[in-house]
Amino acid sequence: MADTELQPVVDAIFEPDTCTWQYIVSDPATKDAVIIDSVLDYNPTTNTISNANAEKLLALISDRGYNIVAILETHAHADHLTAARYLQQALIRRGKPLAPICIGARITSVQHTFAAKYGVNPHEYDGVFDRLLPDGSTISIGNITCRILHLPGHTPDHVGYLIGSNVFVGDSLFQPDVGSARCDFPGGDARALFHSITTKLYSLPDDVRIYVGHDYPPGGPDDGRTEPRAWATVAEQRRTNKHVRDGVEEEQFIAWRKERDSSLAEPRLIHQSLQFNIRGGQLPEASEHGHRFFHLPLKISDDVWNWGFAPQG
């Protein structure tokens, strides 16, 4: 990046329960800022949504004197609940102007897919995002420009945010010793992910910092680092990423990614996260008795069903 290009300040906040990196990216001159990929606390044992992490973000925003101009999502997450709506409404209650919740324009196809799976009514997800971002469009953060990059592969709607000499890539690429994201969700595509990484991210200048959406440090004295790390440069990723470094061929990556994905368990909060996040961080509609529900699909083998749970009638 040119030395004359305006550079933001990046506050990186790690949420340890879901291993999620959250970012507040600001223009130091104007204090205008955006929030990227925030987390709302959820306990699947008690089915409790809480706001401890979100309140930490709000405290940081207040302490720094930031003016939040947008709340950005890289995609519809399958491993945590977004705090986007909570943060938006909390800021309004504190007298701040509405910060639009923004996501890639292809989110609508993802919403339709998972709404059908979980029985979500269209009026609960239609128009819930304030702004759908086309590829190559921009957002102003004070005097700094944020450019939207379409990064399909992990999900079809996935986008990254290029801000100065920093790119926030969500769940497309992880730290070099962790590798790349899974591609086995509906609409996921290992070939598309390879091209997102090699033709879009790796074509950026070597000194650009790639900020990841999660980090899972290998841990232990024999396995390298134990602390989460927010970024690595393009040069470092190209040289050392364990899945997608220079010299790895496309077909080699696709075969390996498919084999790896076939052995992965579902994310712990996949069903709750997707139902909440396609609604733009809004609660499910209340039942006639005032209760709100997430739907959890049952998985029962034929042997179990035929043995003791034969349908009646």
Automatic annotation (TrEMBL):
CDD domains, A to Z: POD-like_MBL-fold
UniProt keyword list: Metal-binding
Pfam families: Lactamase_B
GO molecular function, a single term: sulfur dioxygenase activity
Stored InterPro entries: Metallo-B-lactamas, Mito_Persulfide_Diox, POD-like_MBL-fold, RibonucZ/Hydroxyglut_hydro
Keyword Transferase applies: no
Keyword Metal-binding: yes
Annotated ranges, domain Metallo-beta-lactamase: 19-214
A single GO BP: glutathione metabolic process
SUPFAM superfamilies: Metallo-hydrolase/oxidoreductase
Protein name: Beta-lactamase-like protein
Organism (species): Cercophora newfieldiana
Organism lineage: Eukaryota, Fungi, Dikarya, Ascomycota, Pezizomycotina
